[in-house]
Amino acid sequence: MRLHSSSVAERGRDLLRLPLKTNRDVVAARQAVARELKARGARPIRVTRFATAVSEIARNTVLHGGGGSFAVFLDPASGYLMVECRDAGEGIADLDRAMTDGYSTGGSMGRGLGGAKRLADRFEIETGPGKGTRVILGARL
Length: 141
Ligand SMILES: Nc1ncnc2c1ncn2[C@@H]1O[C@H](COP(=O)(O)OP(=O)(O)O)[C@@H](O)[C@H]1O
Ligand SMILES: [Mg+2]
Known about the structure:
Elements: H1 6-10, E1 16-20, H2 23-39, H3 44-63, E2 68-74, E3 81-87, H4 95-99, H5 112-119, E4 122-128, E5 132-139
Helix pairs in contact: 2-3, 3-5
The chain binds adenosine-5'-diphosphate (ADP) and magnesium ion (MG).
Adenosine-5'-diphosphate binds next to helix 3 and helix 5.
């Protein structure tokens, strides 16, 4: 899958970049994205929805991906606020199954990926066995 916005993050124009190693980092990522959205005039309900999506994906990076990084940037083409969570973990072999509500290899709710896709305005994922996982989430401003 092509990730149109990834080049922006890679060029180092991100508003913010944080490590994702611990649960505290997940909380910090959630707070950072809420702050960025609020500062751009997003309504509270939309801030909460997007921050929840980011929190689920960041938690997966820490829990299933063995840690990674988090970046916030603006997509110049769409004007969306974008978030990238990436890790170099084992990746997801069966993405369709992982996206299904109730499927979890960790014995938890298994609603993180599906929920994040529903809560974000844009959702892209690039993953595979041995490829790590990279998720891009977007919020319309
Ligand atoms: N970053 C990741 N690296 C490896 N596997 C992942 C990653 N994110 C999600 N997965 C896989 O997808 C499954 C579903 O994820 P999710 O819907 O968030 O449910 P949960 O986190 O409750 O297990 C996980 O159980 C895991 O097997
Ligand atoms: Mg999860």
